[in-house]
Amino acid sequence: MSGPQRHLALRFVAVFLAATALVDLLAMLAIVGYHAYVPGAPTGVLDPMTYVLAGASGAAVLSGLLYSLLRYPAHRRTVLLLSLIVVGLLAAHMYTINNPPLSASGTLAGVIGRTASDNQVTLTTVLHGSQLDVAVADTGGSAIGSLSLAVGGVALPQSGFAVQPSATSPIQPGSQDSGSWTLAPGHSASVTLDYQYLTCYATDKKVDGCIMDEVYYVPAAQTLLSGEKCAPYADNCNLEHPFLSKAFIAAGISIFGNDGFGWRFFNVILGTFSIPLLFGICWVVSKNERLALYAAFLLAFETLFFVHSAIAVIDVGSIFFSLLGFLFYFSGFSWWKLDSMMLTGVAFAVAALAKETTIFIFITLVLYHLFFAPGTRRQVFGSTAELLLVVFVVFAVGMQAYDGAFGAGVATTFIGQIDFILRYGSSLVMTPKGCPLFKACDPSSMGWIDSTFNTPITPLNWITYYSPIGYLVTNVRVTSGSTSFSYVSTGYYGVTNQFEVWLVYIWGAYVVYLLFKNRGRFAAESDSREFRLAGFAFLWFMVVFLGYCGLFLYGRVTYPYYLISAVPALSTGAAYLLTRAWFPRPVAYILLAGVFLWFFIFYPDKSFLPVQVRAWLGH
Known about the structure:
There is one protein chain. This protein has four domains: 1-71; 103-198, Immunoglobulin-like; 209-272 and 314-425, no CATH class; 428-619, no CATH class. It is built from 21 helices and twelve strands. It has a four-stranded antiparallel β-sheet, with no helix packed on it. The termini are far apart. β2 and β3 (121-128) form a beta hairpin. It has helices at residues 3-37, 46-71, 76-96, 214-226, 244-256, 260-272, 274-286, 289-300, 303-310, 315-331, 340-354, 358-372, 377-406, 414-427, 459-462, 498-502, 504-518, 525-554, 567-578, 585-601, 611-617; strands spanning 103-111, 116-117, 121-128, 131-138, 144-151, 154-155, 176-182, 190-198, 201-202, 207-208, 469-480, 483-494. α2 (46-71) runs antiparallel to α3 (76-96) and α17 crosses α18 (525-554). By secondary structure, it is α+β, with helices and mostly antiparallel strands. 54% of the residues lie in helices and 13% in strands.
C-alpha cells in the first residue's frame, strides 16, 4: 500500500472513531432525555457507553494526530505544539474541575453539659440521668449536609437525630437539628461532632451551585433529570434560555454523579476542543500555520473563555458549535447527501439550542456570505436561503421536542418558548424604564458595578478596562506573630484577557486601512487569504460588540461576559497582527508571554504556589 493510501486509511480510521464517539454521545444524551421524561427508566447502560465514548474519542484523537504527523511532515512541529496546548489546557481544567469541592468536613469537640461552637455550628448538650439531649444549630453561612455524634470515641446511631440531614436536604443557616440517646453507664464526658458543610450550595435559593450562574443551570439540569415539568417561570427550569447546554450538564450528572466533575465535565470538553476548531478555521482560510497556532494559543489562554469553560454555565456550547459551523463553511466539507451549507446550518442550529445569543455569530456568517461568497447573486441568495431554512427547521424541531416533553405555561411549544425568551430579555431593562439614550440611569439597575471605580460596567468598558468580577473568590488570612497577610485560595474571575482586547485597536484599524488602501486586492495570494481571515474576524467582533451596544442604548442590561461570543474573533485578529512581516517577532513573543501571564495571574487555583507568592499576586 502506498504512503498516501496508508494516510487515507488512517484518516478513515480517525473519522470512523470520531463518528462512533459522536453517535455514542448522542445515544447517551437520548437515554438521559428518555430517563428525564420517564424517571423510572433504567440507565445502567450509560456506564459501558461512557467507556466506549472515552475509548473511541481518545483513539480518534490519537489516530488523527498520527495521521497529521505522517500526512504533513513539514508541519509536524505545529501539530505537536497544538497538541501540547490542547493537552495542557485540558490538564489545567482537570486541576480545577472539582474546586471548590461540594462539601468540606468539620469536627467540633466538647464536654457534655457545656456549649461548644466553631465558625459553622454550635453544639449544645444536656445530660438527664442516662439520657443525652443534643441540639446542633447551624450558626455559620453554609448549609449542613450530614451530622455524626460520638461520646468517648464511640459513635452514636445517626437515627437519633430528628432530621438526619443530607446533601439534598441540608440544615439551613439559622436552623437546627436535635436528638436524644441513652448512654451506657460509665460513659465518657467527651463528645465529638463530625459534620459536612456544603461549600457549593446557594442557601438563599436552596439549590446546588456556587460559581456565577451555576445556581440556575445546575438546578435546571437536575430538574431535567427528575422529569419534572417546568413552571411558566422558575429558577430550576430556566426557560429563558434553550435547553441543550443544560442537557449536557444533566448528562454529566447522570454519567459521573452529582458533583463538580459531573456538572462541569462536558463544558470542559467543549471549551478545550474549541481550540483545535479555531486552529482549523484559521488554517483552512489563511494557510498560515503560525497564524493558526497563534490564534489557538490566544484562545486557549483567554481568561474569560477559560473560566466559562471551567464551570457549569451555557455560553461555551454555543461557541463550540458555532466554530464547528464556521469550519464546515470555510472548508467546504460535505458528508453523504449533506453539503457544506446544510452541515453549517445544522451546527449553528445546535449552537442556538445551546444559547440564543448564537444569533450574533450567525448574523456574522450571513453577512459575510452575502457580501463575500463567490458566485452569482442568485446563487448566493439561494445558498443563504438554504442556510436559513436548515437553521430554522433544526432549531424549531429541537425546541419543540423539549417543550412538548418538559415545558409548561406558555412554553409548551416552540413558538411559546421563543415568546417567553423575548419577553424575559425585554424585561431586563435599566431604570427609569428603558433608560433612553442621553437620560440618566439608576446605576444599581445597569448590571454589574465596578468594585474599584464604583461605576456601572458598560460595553465601552469591555474594550477599555473594568475591574475583574469575582464569580467566586475565597480569601484566607494568615497571622503569624505580629505579621498578617491574606491570599486567594480559590478565585474565579470574570474578566477578558486585556492584552488581547487592547490589540483590537491596532489590528482593527490595520484591517480598515488595508481595506481602503487595497480594496481587498493583494499581489500575493497568501496576503489575500490572511486578509480575508482578518476581515472576517473584524466583522465578527463588530457584529457582537455593536449588537450589544445597540441593546445597551435601547436600555437593556448588558453584562461584560457577553463579549465572550467575540473572544475567538479577538484571538484571530490578534494572531493576524502578530504574524505580519513588519511586526517585530520579539515583540510578538513578549505579547504572547503577557497573555499567558495574565491567564496565570487569574488562574482559579494556584495552590501549587507558596502562600507568600499567592499573597503577592493578589488573585
